[in-house]
Amino acid sequence: xxxxxxxxxxxxxxxxxxxxxxxxxxxxxxxxxxxxxxxxxxxxxxxxxxxxxxxxxxxxxxxxxxxxxxxxxxxxxxxxxxxxxxxxxxxxxxxxxxxxxxxxxxxxxxxxxxxxxxxxxxxxxxxxxxxxxxxxxxxxxxxxxxxxxxxxxxxxxxxxxxxxxxxxxxxxxxxxxxxxxxxxxxxxxxxxxxxxxxxxxxxxxxxxxxxxxxxxxxxxxxxxxxxxxxxxxxxxxxxxxxxxxxxxxxxxxxxxxxxxxxxxxxxxxxxxxxxxxxxxxxxxxxxxxxxxxxxxxxxxxxxxxxxxxxxxxxxxxxxxxxxxxxxxxxxxxxxxxxxxxxxxxxxxx
Length: 349
Description:
By secondary structure, this protein is mostly helical. Helix content is 48%, strand content 7%. The strands form 2 sheets. The chain has a 3-stranded antiparallel sheet. It has a 3-stranded antiparallel sheet with strand order 2-5-6, with no helix packed on it. β5 and β6 form a beta hairpin. α4 packs antiparallel against α8, α5 runs antiparallel to α7 and α7 packs antiparallel against α8.
């Protein structure tokens, strides 16, 4: 059956209210330069308000070269992966694998406790061993063919609610946190894919719909499906009313998390091809690479020079950079008037 509890809904409403209050208080004390979620609009706004200064000698330097002495550089056939470019990406990938290991340990603990207390009349364990014959993706509603352990309380009172809250927080909290942090990988890969459109035929369109990539970008779509699916699998493995832990469903969750972690590890380690320096949405790198702002931009070879050439952006298609040349940049560009006209930059104050 379906049951609706009032206290969890009340706590959810209070938490959402607190989030709204924090957001509103932040909006009052911080000057909003742009409401756009695009890193290109944000970079243009920061440069326009002189809160970010482009480094004019780094037109061929990617984001992972920020800690290296800047200066002239030759184009590279491949660019660094998000794993090497962003320290935060490495932390997210490691945390995903830590969640997989923790889930496997949780499943092993349930199997150990079941093996220790199975057959004991005073224990709350099923009589079904976990084998290939009893393994199932969907649990039996009567638990007649499930391998589980459970612990119960005599009455549902305030202590029961506290215990339930602590159990869900400890067990489901890391899963929710890991899935939320995995959005960082999806976001930087999405931003880099958009940036690399600057060498394509249609160019880079800086004005984007923030909702559209969720349904069109493959990685965002995978994350959109994986989040509710993994939480659903967690719900199958953990029954809060009786505090039942289903061993086979925990293993199913562990396998699904393993596949999820493998996918995002592969995405984080994949190296973009082509001489266009990778930015991964890093605003300082974008400020260094974009020297001419317009609603539609192309990146490529702009100027010949001795001893250095210059690569940058333009409002019209540019020739490919020359792999045998050294690029250093010719000067910081100014923001195009079109950018200010379409309201991407707030000129108030």
